[in-house]
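Progress report, Aim 2. The chain analyzed during this reporting quarter is listed below.
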Amino acid sequence: MQGENMRKAAILVEALPYIQKFNRKIIVVKYGGSAMLDEQLKDNVIKDVVLLKLVGFKPIIVHGGGKDISKWVSRAGMEPRFVNGLRVTDAATMEIAEMVLNRVNKGLVQKVEALGVHAVGLSGKDGGMLKVTKKLSAGQHIGFVGEIESVDPKIITDLLEKDFLPIICPIGVDGEYNTYNINADDAACAIAKAVKAEKLAFLTDTEGLYRNFEDKDSLIRQITVEDAQALIDSGELTGGMLPKLQNCVDALNAGVNRVHILDGRILHSLLLEIFTNEGIGSAIIK
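Predicted structure tokens for the chain:
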């Protein structure tokens, strides 16, 4: 029993300098992938974010919900369609996506509130937060999919100052106030830049950033923003990691100090990356 208590004390001591360093700093957590589908993982992600708040961070959650949207589109008798990895979103699909994302959003609010922290669920429509233009995929029209044009962070900063935890789903409007679905990675990066976040953390379904995804020994634990851009330009990266890494580089160049790519399937991966010396995923740094 004494040994177990000493181990717990050692963990707290190891975490102390990180708690001191990031006290009152903003961290944006992009929440998606398998961690949203498994209830145990979902509960633990929310516990992690609540703990970050209670030890002095100012966390913001930006979440997706793509798998839930596909499920409800299929239940409505429609066939989910994708072009170059982007969902083709006609008016009917957009209506379903907005309903599903708001349902997911309020479910996360409920989980945070149950842990004794006040949260507010938002979409990019609230306070004119996310303004978009129509996004094309390799020149093809894919419907109501938005490219973020601007972010007005006022409603977010107001909530942080009032000690609320903002939880944001990626829906925005264009200049004529039409509703658009936004890639959640894009939304998280744009929001992190707008609020000048200290950290941006992506919870994904991979262990981190690989130089070659087929070679599990090529996991990159830490990389500078310059080397990350060189890796992008080299053409070595393929698939979904390429736009994610470009988002990370853009966020760092816009003022975010550190970006983490974490495996959301690992319990408490967020805490392990932020509060331990070894970390657990990949970090892109200035």
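The chain has nine helices and 16 strands. The chain has a mean pLDDT of 89. These observations will guide the mutagenesis work planned for the next reporting period.
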